[in-house]
Amino acid sequence: MRIIKLPLEEFISNIREDKTIYLGLRTQIVCIDDRIDYSFMKKNYVLEENFDFNASIFLGKISFDNHKILFDPFELSSQSFEELNSFWLNEINPETHHIYYYKNPNNIKLNQEQIQSYFTNLYHNNIQFLSNYCTDINQLGGIKLYHLKQEQTHQKTNTKQLHGTEILPIEDEIFYSYLVWTLQNFLIPYDIGKYQEEHDFFFNLGAYKKYKNALDNGEIFIETTNSLNENHLDLFFDNINPLQYAIGYLQKKIGIYGKSLKSSLGTRHKHYSDGLNHYFELQENPDLFARLIAVSHPKKGELDLWSNAMLQKAQLKFLF
User: Fold this and answer.
1) Alpha-carbon distance 173 to 171, whole Å?
2) What percent of the chain has pLDDT over 70?
3) What's the predicted TM-score (pTM) here?
4) Bridge partners of residue 169, in order along the sequence
5) pLDDT digit string (tens) for 55-72?
6) Cα–Cα distances in angstroms (integers) from residue 39 to residues 88, 216, 235, 277, 290, in the given order
């Protein structure tokens, strides 16, 4: 969710050389006392289509050093869970079969122990997965790509299967594009990630009581000083489209500004799923597919303080 649209001249001046990738996860757990009137928000702010007041966490960053990628995880501590707003789970209205927008007595409000257990599990599972992913890339010297070939079965129907692999070296100019796209489910905005790292915030800013006054006043941003030209940071955000992570910064603006923006990531062109994993092809490098890295959510039996019904409600998404 962004609240300002940068003019082109400011947009171009935001081009950065830093290739650091900031990582986190957005959940479907609401982290304010109650949702703010969406009609008011939609009228007064530029909102992304699926904007909501949900808790997100910061997992760390990936940087580059001497043809290697380095994963620097956020250091979680008990202080990471201090001074938080109310956290609660979405609930389905049995009459409409839609999720309640405003909080009601049926919504489960999470206590401190439930919040800490859920997000600690989410943190550790995905930190380990990201660490292993970066280690694998360094050991291979690049990202593994797959060939997708069409085969004819004995029923004479055409099917597509992955065949063979090759390694795209870290030194290749399109490696960064592949890396960012494989991490699509974990991307958070560069400026927000930088701010959370500098201020040691585990949750998105809107999850903390210190920003509650901004929410009560109908504001969804804070003033900040950062390395970019923007002077606002969002209190809540979605995981972002990889095209927004180009070194040229927000490449999605190409629809507004045309091809004036030359620094861009590769363009995802085709998708493929084998039923277990999802893969993608970049238009700039056809016929080779990379695997999309999946998120690991808390599972049944992993959290003593959470019932199976609660875990299911933690995945309920409000659709506007």
Assistant:
1) 6
2) 77
3) 0.85
4) 142
5) 999 999 999 998 899 999
6) 22, 16, 18, 38, 40
